[in-house]
Structure prediction request, 361 residues.
Amino acid sequence: MKAYVTKDAERYERFMLGHPMCHFTQSPDWGKVKAEWEGVAFLCEDDGGAVVGGLYALLRKAPFMRGWLMMSSRGPVCDVGDGEVLRCLLRAVRDYAASRRCYAVTLEPDVAASDLAFTEAMEGMGYKVRKRGANFEGINPRFVYRLGIAGKDADAVMAGFHQKWRYNIRLAERKGVEVRLGGAGDVPAFHRIMEETGRRDGFVTRSAEYFGRMHAAMAHKGRMRLYLAYYGGELVAGTVTLMYGGKCWYLYGASSDGHRNVMATYLLQWEAIKWAIAEGCRVYDFRGVSGDMDEKNPLYGIYRFKKGFNGELVELQGQMDLVLRPFTRFAVGFGFAALRKARTAFRRMKGGGAGRRGGDG
Prediction:
């Protein structure tokens, strides 16, 4: 068995698209969205030459220091219960990271927190599991909300929604909300209501350039849809939805301050879910929610909205770190902590709230 860095994007993607653990952040196309990072793909083969594992990682140089961070969002992709495959693949990752003077390797696997055998295997290879909070402490959300749609038609899926959610979808239709698919030229308009949403709800938004890169990298293969909802000819809401390897993800959502009573956000979700059903997806992933179910939690509303679609709350392993250069890791962590505090203080001075952003790898 061997694992190695590969430049064969076609073979790598063929494996990813056919594996049940695939994730859009493990696609090299997603690396094009993260323009400030350098991407690298790994494959693991068994003794017969068949691919049995893969991982896509991003590298970024530490500011003002010699050293890099290697980060893999939702990797590794393999049978995580096969210790030989897991060790072989992550040994290649570690060796490559060391050759690039990486100070740490950070993984956020798409593996349930309840899989204690996986946790033990990762700790045995030197990875440390970060303290597990209930909110959005990591690069990616640790609690996600997923709707299983395998083998179901649209009527069966709709029947499972909470009664109020079905009503809101039909209300939007009766009110005349029109859902259209946006193109690259619609990205600035979507970004404007995304900023409006961020100001209203107190979170940090991505730039219009970022969404433009995402559209350029993902939409041409049919893997991204920008859904836009109009009421009376006015753009009132939008979502970004990604599809990869039989799964569909709700990545970003935005709504204007006006006409919120027409329930456009519910209809947008339904249109995206119908797309996932039509394409034969197994899962529609609403992505991050808070694990703190206290209704007083400011993030509870996100969970309540997603819960009405009758999916399943999934707790993942969270962030795992393999520290290769402790001093560099400490210095970088200290610098970023100081920067975050300064940014938070600045936002509070401006009256913008503490700010947050759910990760996307």
The chain has eleven helices and 15 strands. The two ends are 29 Å apart (CA to CA). The first strand starts at residue 2 and ends at 6.
